[in-house]
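Page 42, continued from yesterday. The earlier attempt failed because a stray header line got pasted into the input along with the sequence. Redoing it now with the clean sequence only.
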Amino acid sequence: MTTKRALLLMRFGVFLLLYVALWTYTLFQGDFASWFLTYFFSFILLLLVCGSLFRLKNWQIKRDFHKARIQEGETVRLTVHFARKRAFPMGYLLMQQAMPETLGNLPGRQQVIYPFFKRSITADLAPFTAVRGKHVFPAVEAETSDPFGLMERSARLGEAVELTIYPRYFPDILMKISENSPENERNATNWTFKKNQNIHGLREFTPGDRISWIDWKSSAKTGKVMAREYENSSSSRVRVIFYGQQHPHFDFALRAAYSFARKMLEQNGEVSVAVLGENGQTFGFSRGHAKLEDIAKAFAEVAPATAEKLAEPLTSLLAQNQRTILFTPFVDPALQKAVRSSVQKQTIQLVSILDGGQMDAGTIYLPKKALALPETADGGDTDENNR
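This time it went through. Structure tokens are written below.
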């Protein structure tokens, strides 16, 4: 910053020295051409002085993403809004938004806008493909100069902005698991929460409820469509564990675990979720959408960890007497040993990703293509294999 200021002062000083020399020459010469050059350079100097009076930091910026909740694989569009109180003339404004390293090797987004006398202006930056995780976008770099390019100025505008990109959700995850189970059962009833016959109460019918839940007698009496609520059986409690070991299939297994946990919670099941890995979290049993947002953020921010680091929390979880479905990028000998040594091994179901190697008996293997991200067709950068 000190070097830029010194260069700016040096340019202005040289220009001012030339201006004084021009006046001296004009006073001694006195012809029409000399006075024309003097007035012309006086006009240029006036523009330089006026241009330097407006500070770039007077611009207020706001960055908006195209929607509040973004899933990995989607095309992200970032819009930058510039606003100022006074309409001071400005020829151009070169802005650059540096991209977070967590998004990969993406080049910064640059754009030239021409404010002139406008008090507000909008810039739509080049789109990019969303990558799961928490990303921090640094302040915007802005640069401009006078109409003659003699005095350049730059400034950092705004504050850092955070963007959390959630894992891709596959609503048909129950069917995918059922289709690839060792028994090859062509239905997902084993992975849905069945209701028993104990009626918990009555409530007004809402969209998404089953027709079979309608209590027609109560509906006739009240004049409103009433639905029966049932108590869940004790067997509906399930713990979902994501074993986030370092492996090329890490993201595929994570999408399966997140989709399964979300689907179960949306079905109002009683679910406990353990996300094992760097920055991992564990959530107690809950129903519905009470903890769904926190669980989604945990899946979004978790990073792979070594098997040694995951061994202790995994052993602790498997020691508890709970029906468990464990998602893992691959089944290694250490994981097999931990499951077989568990006293509750009969209630543990492993789900992994099919990679063409040796398959463990009793494990459900999901193909990668069933959990792959859709290809972007609108200009976003994507790299499924390099994440």
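Notes: The chain has four domains: 2-53, 58-166, 173-194+234-386, 196-232.
Reminder to self: strip header lines before submitting.
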